[in-house]
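User: I'm preparing a small set of examples for a lab meeting where we compare how different chains pack in three dimensions. I only have the primary sequence for this one, and I'd like the structure in C-alpha cell form so I can line it up with the others. Please keep the answer compact; I'll paste it straight into my notes.
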Amino acid sequence: MSEIHKNPTYIAEVLTEALPYIKRFSGKTIVIKYGGNAMFNNQLKSSFARDVVLMKLVGMNPVLVHGGGPQIGKLLEKLGKKTEFIDGMRVTDNETMDIVEMVLGGLVNKEIVNLINRHGGNAVGLSGKDGGLIRAKKMIFKQHNPKLETSDIIDMGHVGEVDSIKTAVVDLLIKSDFIPVIAPIGVDETGQSYNINADLVAGKMAEVLHAEKLIMLTNTSGLLDAEGNVLTGLSTEEVDSLIQKGVINGGMLPKIRSALNAVREGVKSSHIIDGRVEHAVLLEILTDVGVGTLLQGHND
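Assistant: Understood. Below is the C-alpha cell output for the 300-residue chain.
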C-alpha cells in the first residue's frame, strides 16, 4: 500500500512543503543536464518527463541539454567503426562526427522531445546549429609526456568547446511556453561541426540564460567524501579545496567544474543529483531534503 493510502494527510503535507518552492521558482529558468541511467530505464524516463512537464505547468522554465555517448557508441559498433578514447573523450573524425550529429541531433533529441510531449508537455528539439545557438571552437587537448617532461598537443578531431551562445531561439521558445531540448553540437565560423561535452554546454547555457539553477543528473548519489557520504551545501571555496585535496577526481571533475563555473558566473545554485532516483528533479527542487549535492553561489 502506498504512503498516501496509509496516511491520507501525506499528499497535503507534500503539497504544503512544495508550495513555497513553487512560488519562489515560478518564472525562473532551470537548466537540466539529462543523462545517465535516467535516459535508459523506462520507469526513470517517464518520471523525468513528468517532472519536467509539472515544472512547466507550475510556471518554471525548464531548459534541457542532453548527452548520448552510449547511443553513439552502440551505433559506431554496429557500423564496425572503432572508437578511440583519450582521457574519457571520444576522438571524432569526419565520419564519426556525421554519426554523432545523426544520433544526438536526430535519434536521441527527438526521442526526448517525444517522451515529454507524450506526458503532456510541449517540447521542441534543437541542436547548437539552430538559430546560431552554439558557436564552437576546436578543443586544444594537451597530454603530459613524462619522458620528455613536456605536454603533447593531441588532435581530437571534431571535439569542441563552447566559444559563445546566442540565446535568441531559446528565449523565443521559453516565451512561447515550449520546453527547449538541446543537443550539444556546435558550429564554428567556417560552418564546421563539433561534438561538445553536454555538462559543459549545460553549464554555459545556465550562465547565459541567467538561470536560477543548474541541475545535472548522474549515476551516483552526488559528490561523495572519502567515506562515501554525500557532500552538499558547499560553497565555491569549499569545492576548490576538495579539488586541491583530490577528493573530487575522475569523471566527477568536469561536472563539478561546470557546476562551479556556473555559480561563479551568477547562477544561484548548481545541483548534482542522483538520476537513478524516481522524480529526482522534483525532489531536489520542491522538497527540503533533496537527492544530491548542492553548490551555492554567493547570492544564495
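A couple of notes for your slides: The first strand starts at residue 29 and ends at 34. Residues 3-296 form a domain with the Carbamate kinase fold (CATH 3.40.1160.10).

User: Perfect, thanks.
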